[in-house]
Specification:
This protein is mainly α and 197 residues long. The chain contains ten helices and two strands, in the order H-H-H-H-H-H-H-E-E-H-H-H. It has helices spanning 6-17, 20-29, 32-55, 57-67, 73-76, 82-96, 99-122, 133-150, 156-171, 178-196; strands at 127-128, 131-132. It is globular, with a radius of gyration of 17 Å. The relative contact order is 0.14.
Length: 197
């Protein structure tokens, strides 16, 4: 069994905790305009932080002093952080899809991606790039079961298909951030299947 770097543990704990957003949308907020207002505000703030850490030296020093232990190499070199991509992905997903589909897609991201990373690092079986089939399979199982438990209207075949697509997108190497591509891709297949079944 391999060890997981501390920065990755913290990132994945935060990633898992981000499930509170889609669950709040499902159980508390329920209105798309209100959720979009919240997400657009959070995304705008994240983009402002990205701008300031690249262009304001004092802010940049403060930012890296506070978050350096969580950042990946590409993020320290100026690329958007995973958190910013997560917020962009959430906002677009809620904008594009009705609530049950958006919630499922966001849970595949927050739960499926986290378990894929954790299990893939602990028990790396069959590597594809820097991902593993063991991680992908565990992400599929855990996120599918969770979404099936909280689902209120989607057919199981729609949920399972969305989870498969989300985890395949997570597995395949891409230049695009999977915090963006996973929920949008799974949302598109679920929207299509939901409309024909």
């Amino acid at each position: 069994m391999n060890k997981i770097p501390k920065n990755e543990i913290m990132r994945k704990v935060i990633h898992l905790l981000s499930a509170i957003i889609p669950l709040s949308y499902l159980w508390l907020i329920k209105e798309r305009p209100i959720m979009l207002l919240i997400l657009v505000s959070m995304t705008s703030f994240a983009l402002l932080v990205e701008f300031m850490r690249k262009s304001v030296n004092h802010f940049s020093r403060w930012f890296y002093g506070l978050f350096h232990f969580m950042l990946r190499d590409n993020e320290t070199k100026g690329q958007y952080t995973g958190a910013t991509w997560l917020l962009i992905g959430w906002t677009i997903t809620v904008m594009l899809f009705k609530m049950p589909i958006a919630v499922a897609a966001l849970l595949f991201l927050s739960i499926g991606d986290s378990f894929a990373a954790i299990v893939g690092k602990l028990f790396p079986i069959i590597r594809i790039g820097n991902k593993t089939l063991s991680g992908t399979f565990s992400g599929f199982i855990v996120s599918s079961l969770f979404v099936l438990l909280v689902n209120q209207s989607l057919l199981p075949i729609v949920i399972l298909s969305g989870s498969i697509v989300a985890m395949v997108v997570e597995l395949i190497p891409s230049r695009l951030n999977d915090n963006l591509t996973m929920p949008i891709s799974s949302g598109l297949i679920m929207m299509y299947l939901d409309s024909i079944l």
